Amino acid sequence: MEYLDFELPIKELEDQLDKCQIIGQESDVDVSNTCKQIEKKLEETKKKIYKNLTAWQRVQLSRHPNRPYTLEHITNITNGTFLELFGDRGFKDDKAMVGGLGQINGQSFMIIGQQKGINTKMRQYRNFGMANPEGYRKALRLMKMAEKFNIPVLTLIDTPGAYPGLEAEERGQGEAIARNIFEMARLKTPIISVIIGEGASGGALGIGVGDRVYMLENTWYSVISPESCSSILWRSWEYKEQAAEALKLTSFDMKKQKLIDDIIPEPLGGAHYDKETTFKSVAEYVTKAFNELKDLSTKDLVAQRMDKYSKMGEFKE
Hints:
Elements lengths: L7 H19 L5 H19 L4 H8 L7 H8 L5 E2 L12 E8 L2 E8 L5 H6 L7 H16 L4 E7 L6 H5 L2 H13 L5 E10 H5 L6 E5 L3 E3 L3 H9 L5 H8 L3 H6 L5 E3 L10 H19 L4 H13 L7
Parallel strand pairs: 3-4, 4-5, 5-6, 5-7, 6-8
Antiparallel strand pairs: 1-2, 2-3
Helix pairs in contact: 1-2, 3-11, 6-8, 10-11
């Protein structure tokens, strides 16, 4: 297990507990009471830390190297029924954007999401989860296929943003994202979106227009990352923590602003501490959302989606 800077008190107590248990195994000394005291203190420390996380600490948790990425979510919530589909039929297959068919609790879904790598080689292969225009066009192709066969769409969002390279701009990055937003707003099949990690900028919104939008507890969703915001406003990354607070990017802030529908709770310490529970929770929320949407007529489904996004940003002074 890798630890973030604010998790170091937990690491120290877990190290103490391991040493205590080793002493008990290798000697005749009864250390059971000592171990219980350490376990109690460890539990109290975890609750104290994770119940009082700052916005920046939640950003750090969303990027935790042990956190499950899109394909791991897909494999587990579909129980191995996922069939990946490839290519945008125009340029090439984008490895940062994955998609295909799979069953969740007996219901077929077209599942689409950004995939980061689990090591350096895979991160380069997946372009760090930053999709090119062909990735968004592949996503749209799969959504249109789902619409044709009346299959609901599930999108899993985890990206630091769309790829900002020159070649991506030359192939129409902005147009590809805008086209997806336009087409998703009027897609004639239910769309469920879940932010499972980072939800940054148009890269996230390009597959994020949904009838139901959920966020895992320790994720973020914003027009810009805290580091980029800090570099623009203060010409330095040193103010990223202040920027994170000001951006109101956590799941709780987003729910308060009525920009998402609900928060999917995570196990104490984050999704990576108990992946099975996390996968189960995601599958339950997706099934619940589909059951709420499946009986709506196409006309009502699209009208409600349009109305939902039209109301965003309204406020009274």
